Records
---
Amino acid sequence: MRTRIAVLVSGGGTNLQALIDAQSRGEIPDGEIVLVISNNPNAYALQRARNAGIEIAVCTKPDLEAKILETLKDHNIEMIVLAGFMAILSKYFVSHYPERIINIHPSLIPSFCGEGFYGLHVHEAALSYGVKVTGATVHYVNEIPDGGRIIAQKAVDIQEGDTPEILQKRVMEQAEWILLPRATEIVSKRIRLEKVQ
Ligand code: GRF
């Protein structure tokens, strides 16, 4: 039985698309994306899920977490991938899925992470600090924003003349879209093996 995965999104969903494409190439043999949940009804990510024939759900405030938890239970979800999900999950929420929620962050943690470091802010901070190498990190999610154990990282060089937008695009192309499917397979496999033990 493959690990049943839900992907949580809020925006454009390019990381979701990378997961869908990897799945269709057979690169996530131990998991299956069965559900996409968005807290934003207008997220383009939802269209990507529809195009791929994946079931979608929209969960909004109030009681966002309770609605998500109920939806996850209804679909027997075993693993959660946060792919551009723009809400911080509480300790209560995370305690339902220990070491079963992963997130992609567009820097080399522990640099440029934690509260306030999202989207272009991350790349602005890297450029203004003057680092020469940045990248992306996939990590387990716990109650501390970007604070859980690291699963995988990939470095990306900063180049002369980079703007936050240019850097964001390079980090996505060279790191995020490669790393997230790989990490998803690693964790799917671990969960699948735990089930047969
Ligand atoms: C990505 O940069 C990801 O690292 C961060 O949010 C962004 C989401 O982009 N967590 P997309 O919706 O996957 O295109």
---
Amino acid sequence: MCGIIGYTGRQNAIPKITAGLSVLEYRGYDSAGLAAAGNGRITTIKCCGRVKDLEEKLRQTEEIITTCAIGHTRWATHGGVTDRNAHPHTVGYVTLVHNGIIENEKEWRERLTLDGYHFSSETDTEVAAALLNRAYQKTKDPLQAIYGVLEILRGSYAFAMIFADRTDEIYAVRQDSPLLIAQGEDGCYLASDLTALVSYASTYCVPDEGVVVRLNQDGIFLCYKDGTQKEPIYQQSGMQHAAAERGGYDTFMKKEICEQPQALRAALNGREAEGLPDFSINALPTDFFDNVHRIHIVACGSAMHAGLLGARLLERDTGIPTTIFIASEYRYHMPPKEEGTLLIAISQSGETADTLAALRAAKARGIPVLAIVNAENTAIAREAAHVLYTHAGPEIAVATTKGYCTQVALLWMISLFLSNRRKTIAQDTIKERLAFLKESAPKAISAVIARESELSHIAERLDGHDRLFYIGRGRDYALAAEGSLKLKEISYVHSEAYAAGELKHGTISLIEPGTPVIAFCTEDALAEKMLSNVREVASRGASVTVLCKASLSSLFLQSAVVFPLDCENDETAVFAMMTAMQLIAYETARRRGCDVDKPRNLAKSVTVE
Ligand code: F6R
């Protein structure tokens, strides 16, 4: 949610900033801009639209050569999507870019207005710039000015700031928003996430919250409020440069769907001893779960859907009562305190503000937190007592696929681990299920990907429709919830996921002749009930497509178009089904000419509550 980037060094900064913005664009793509410092002045170029629009604007402007610049790609929070609201914002000496939200901006906007300041944008960022300029005019000391302003600002931020009379220096600071710094061979870098830094440096540092960072020709320094300064301690990045590239695919989403077999293997790799699940590689004590009597799972969006599926597995296999909470609701309605509660926070980005807030609320109550995270060293990973990384590799498409896939895999693994500890399932069965997850499930995903053209025909059945229903029972309902979200977010077709048995309690009144219904059925025990639900909608004229286990196909053939999935166990069924529903959403979006990687109004990591 908003990407920021900065560079100061020996090379021309502009190509580095635009390249960095292209990589960070998945964080927000309402507008883009940069500010170049040099020759005693700051030049700002910004516009609504994508980074390519900014590049076009740069081409039409006199070439800027500078060794120090900052850039921003925006996901609008305060103020509409306009050129004026695009970042960077300049007030007097100060030019800055911002990711986050200043919560007391209204109060300061009013006070500054009374003092005679005229705002030229609707953003909270300009308020911060105006306050900083006012402080800087008094002190002429950037550190004193920044620390002074931080005392009066409330909210979340990562700022990168330059001053008109210090044109080779960048200052930066973060609070509840991501910011990384890295020393490259040709200069110093800052960015919102690692993907923008991997081409320039193999190590990085996450500065502590509230500590101002100075980047200049001498290097990068952490400058503390008491006047002391330190060099950052860098750590090795686990990310490969090529992992954040499209690698021959038309879209990142397609690439990431196709990467799921290897992502699934990577998620499970090394977490096994003698054929049984084992987390000692993650320094998770073997007895970690022994006193757990209740599990709360918090997450948002697709991660929450992974949790929904995981909760069903955990309860079925371990008998531990497990409840899934929408993270943004959790802290306002926390269940009564109960000894032995464990919170599992799930997040691909590791930055989601709602999930982070829920995690903090749980910690404040003394509830231990285990995080399942993809992006390394992010806030949720750092603040949890223990983290299990999903190792899916960078996920660039805004709609998650391999992130979700590996979250489900790890929850499954946890469930098997607990089943073994508690002896709720025989060891041989656990070994067999783990082998299915590791070996058969990746193959099942590949087999579905190979049938893409068939799924494209299913997508074709949705042509001309602007609403539909997904239905399923049990874990198929959890998968349907994700299928429906995937379709909505990238193709803009309204769909609703329903527990199949619930439709008849009201919503079935929306079924008309031709209404598309996509039904999932992979659970033998629920197949007959599913058939009744399919017949209920088919007899009212719905155009039903059933995705089911191949062995159940004949049941549905009379009432629906059937897409049979070759899957002989729960493990292959779940991963085959998730791949099929991702590809249906993908094909539908492509048929409608949508930008699948950057759907409208969305951004990859949602760092505001
Ligand atoms: C949907 C999607 C979102 C995220 C949600 C949580 O495709 O990507 O619903 O799943 O915003 O994000 P993370 O997992 O980064 O916390």
---
Amino acid sequence: MTHEEILQGLYDHTLIGNAPEVKDLVNQGLADGLGPESMLYDALIPSLEEVGARFERGDYFVPEMLIAARAMQGALDILRPLLAETGAKPIGTYVMGTVKGDVHDIGKNLVNIMLEGAGFTVYDLGVNVAPEKFVEMINEHQPDIVGFSAFLTTTMPMFKANINALQKAGIRDAVIVMVGGAPVTQEYADAVGADGYAADASTAVRLAKDLIEKRRSAVAV
Ligand code: B1M
């Protein structure tokens, strides 16, 4: 099989949620020297975007979205160690979770993988994380950054609820707050009082490094 055929196969089989075939193709791609990033950005993510488009058009329903997501997750299980393998020096600590009411986690997991690859220690709180849980875990791990992911317009207001909870607990200024997720925008992030917003995983890593550097140099002055 050519690399193009493997990528096309990954796209097609993710779209129909054929997890065993997706796994086989990922393994075949790796054996043939196809890069993990290429499989991710040229096939798997575009396929999930098409899944979303079909859902919006009413051609797909929740079960189809679910099996496509499972196929993607199977691929990520194989790719995770390769994407995170950079030998980067420890750089900071990150507490991350998908906000209350929201169970989407593929995008969050991808951001975590990239953060780990860049040298962050990541504490992943999972999905449907309540504001009190964020507060508790920030107190426990004392991270440089807390990241909130939201993937639904109906769960984005949880950013503000989380920030309010941090304020109430007296720890808002002790931690940098980053937000992200498909429907989130810079304007929305600014409106809720977040310190940073990124549209994708690699921008999230770059921004996390910048925000930590800024905070550390401000403290040093
Ligand atoms: Co749902 N879903 N879903 N879904 N789902 C979306 C998000 C939707 C856009 C589909 C659509 O209509 N086009 C739509 C939301 C519309 C809206 O509110 N604007 C939607 C809906 C409506 C729903 C339900 C309400 C459907 C229903 O029940 N009627 C329901 C809600 C359940 C809930 O959470 N309470 C639901 C359920 C599901 C499944 C469970 C079936 C499944 C999720 C499985 C899982 O995650 N384990 C699912 C899926 C798979 C999707 C789509 C198709 C794919 C999501 C995905 O993984 N994308 C999605 C359509 C789409 O996104 N095009 C859709 C790939 C991923 C790599 O991208 O998630 O954007 P993304 O993550 C990016 C960036 O956002 C960013 O970096 C990531 C990597 O580059 N990022 C950050 C993420 N977090 C960040 C944090 C940061 C910075 C950057 O800093 C902290």
